[in-house]
Design a protein that fits this description.
about 90 residues, mainly alpha, two-stranded antiparallel sheet, 3 helices, 2 strands
């Protein structure tokens, strides 16, 4: 079981694909008969889909910014390390 899951873990954006699948299932099953005040039922599938997609976009933007700034930090640390090595010579 571990080997196939390890291979799946290497697939980029697997978490986003799983989240989209769960979002679609949730929107099409649970959100279609949402209870409303007064005892009625309303289809809230579009609300669930919009909220879920907005959350995924936020997740991807934050991850992208994190990777960008992490790369900049690593480059800066590498330059400082090289400068220290040159100063020792």
């Amino acid at each position: 079981i571990e080997r196939p899951l390890a291979k799946l873990g290497k697939v980029d954006m697997l978490s986003v694909c799983v989240a989209l699948i769960v979002l679609m299932i949730t929107a099409m099953t649970f959100a279609t008969q949402a209870h409303q005040h007064g005892g009625g039922h309303v289809d809230k599938a579009s609300t669930v889909m919009l909220s879920g997609i907005a959350g995924l976009i936020t997740y991807l933007v934050v991850g992208g910014l994190s990777g960008f700034f992490e790369g900049k930090l690593e480059e800066e640390e590498e330059r400082e390390h090289e400068a220290e090595e040159e100063a020792k010579k």
